Amino acid sequence: MSGHERLLINGGLVLDPRSGSAESKDLLIEHGRIVGIGPPGTVNSADAARHDAHDRLITPGLINAHTHGHANLVKGVAGAWTLEASLTNGPWLAGCRDPETMYLSTLVGAIDMLSKGCTACFDLVYQFPRPTKAGFMAVAQAYADAGMRAVLAPMVADKSLFQSIPGLIDALPPDLGDTVRRFDLASGEQTVAAIESIAAAQGDLADGVTLAIAPTIPHHCTDRFLRDCIDIADRHALPIHMHIAESRLQAIVARQIYGRSAVQYLAESGMLRPRFTAAHGVWLDDDDLDLLAARGCSVAHIPASNYRLGSGVAHVRPMLARGINVGLATDGANSSDSLSMLQAMRLASFSARIFDGPREEWLTSSEVIKLATLGSAKILGLEACGRLEQGAYADLVLFDLGHIDFIPDIDPVNQLVTCADSAAVTDVMVGGIFKMRDRKIVSVDTNNLRGRVRDSVARLAAATGPAHALAEQLEPHVVAFAQSMSSERLAFERRIRPRFA
Ligand SMILES: [Zn+2]
To answer: Which domain holds residue 360?
Structure first.
């Protein structure tokens, strides 16, 4: 992923996420990296091609710390789904996907992200009933073709939603209970073997794509299965990424099953380590945060998904106060629809303001930008991304300062978070190569995308019809059960409970 010619991007307002300031600078790019940066006219640019950026704000490529490529063909699917409703619908949302469909679904997400200024992502890849090498390689190819960097983790479990929540099956009407008792995920051994085959083929992954592992939710995995996942991670040096304490119900179920929080359980099982990322982390208490900090773990903050599913709001300030690395993410289209990191930044900024406390505990715009760049880069293990400095990868985004979002340009860094949407993005570069130029994706042909997606969605609707119909029957029962269980007491709150005098 390298640009071969020397290119000078001159005169742009260049954002430094470490300081949160933006200054007029020239950037010299060679072999995919920034090899020179300095005030206009000071960078030796002999023989370099030029790209004039005088009316542009230049930021590092935004980095999405948590998404799901398989979910982009169900964008806009839900009016009012909780997390548990979404998981009930999982079998048809992700079902019947051959490698070609997985490729197309991932490509849609990659184009969505790129066109909104995102140049790298962490994708938790799901294939029912277990991962396949062919499916996984198709996902990797989609990112490579679109020109994004990606860390891909097979998202796996050996228990169904129904097996994972105590009492749920017995609370269903008898016929539905009998049906879900027959739900069978692939055995843990088969899934572990499938991950091993993918890990053995890591060397075949497309350029810019690396491997991780994602045992999806702690209580959806048996102890034995989690131990096997840790073993694979250890042997292949893979980052681990899990959904942790996403909904109130999950926090309660963990206490029922483990007698303690999921984080405490995982700490004792040897799961927590510097390359461990807890996605969501809405229902974490102070002890959980202390443990994550002590083990050097990261958190992926995903506010759009948490709002959309009514999961509650993650409290980021106490994470940062403990030195926990926090990245920012959109989640998959099944729970956030748009994969906009610009929206994610604005939501992160505003979410910090709903908690009781002085305004000094809110997140400033420059702190939010840091989450979406340096914080997410650390989660992906891309230390040469998320910053515009000598030696960093030339992954960058140009925003039009002539766009109405920046008129007047009182404080462009603040306006990146408070005003900008994707219409202000003009150019996106990854590894020194333009993937979007003059507001048009140039890395892949998008001309017939709409028709291809429409055909694919129609084919999937027919194939997943029976699973969809069953989910519609199950959903109200699951949601009602989760609601009754969620009313149990926790020592802390992450959702507003209005009290009237
Ligand atoms: Zn997720």
So the answer is: 62-380
Burial letters for 167-178: b for 16+ Cβ neighbours within 10 Å, e otherwise? ebbeebeeebee
The Cα–Cα gap between 82 and 95 comes to 20
Distance 220 CA to ligand 1 centre (A): 14
- How many angstroms separate the alpha carbon of residue 305 from the centre of ligand 1? 9
Mind listing the pLDDT tens digit for each residue in 425-458? 999 999 999 999 999 999 999 999 999 999 999 9
Distance 219 CA to ligand 1 centre (A): 15
Write out pLDDT tens, residues 183-220: 776 789 999 999 999 999 999 998 899 999 999 999 99
Residue 268's CB is within 10 A of a number of other CB atoms, namely 12
CA of 124 to the centre of ligand 1 (A): 7
332 C-alpha to center of ligand 1: Å?
Answer: 6
How many domains is the chain built from?
2
Q: Give the distance (Å) from ligand 1 centre to CA of residue 66.
A: 6
Instruction: State the distance from the centre of ligand 1 to the C-alpha of 335, rounded, in angstroms.
Output: 8
89 and 15 assigned to the same domain: no
Q: Using CB atoms within 10 A of its CB, is residue 491 exposed (0-12), middle (13-18) or buried (19+)?
A: exposed
What's 217's domain CATH number? Answer: 3.20.20.140
- Residue 494 maps to a domain: no
Contact in structure between 81 and 138 (CB atoms under 8 Å): no
